[in-house]
Amino acid sequence: NKKHLKNLPEQQLRQLQCIDEKVHSYQTYQKELEAQHKKSVVTEQQFILHKMLHTRLPEMLASYHQLANIHTSAQHVSNGKKAEARELLQKILDNIEQRLDYLLEQIETQQLQALRVMNHYIDSHDD
What we know:
Blueprint: H1 10-35, H2 44-68, H3 75-124
Helix pairs in contact: 1-3, 2-3
C-alpha cells in the first residue's frame, strides 16, 4: 500500500527499492526455470522469505504507518515509540535484504556449478 510508505525515511525507501530489485531478479530466475520446464524445490529459507515479503513486511509497514500518524499529548513518549518503531523496521528490512542476498548468492553458486559440470563434461569428451 503506497500510503504506508509516505512516513518512511528516505534511507528506508531506498532500501525497499533495493529489496524490490532483488526480488525481481529472483522472480525472473524462477520464471526462467519454469520456461525451461525445470521444477525448483522450495526450500524452507525461500518459504520464510516469501512469507516475510508478502505478509510480514506489509503488516509491519501498515503498523509503522499507523504509529507514525498517531498524535498523543505526551509527545516525548510518542517520539520514543516512533524511534523504536523505526529501529525495528530497519532490523526487519536488514533481515529481509540479508536473506535475499543469501538466496541470490546460492542461485549464482548453483549456476556456476552447473557451468563447471558442463565444462568438465565437454573437456572429458575431447579426444
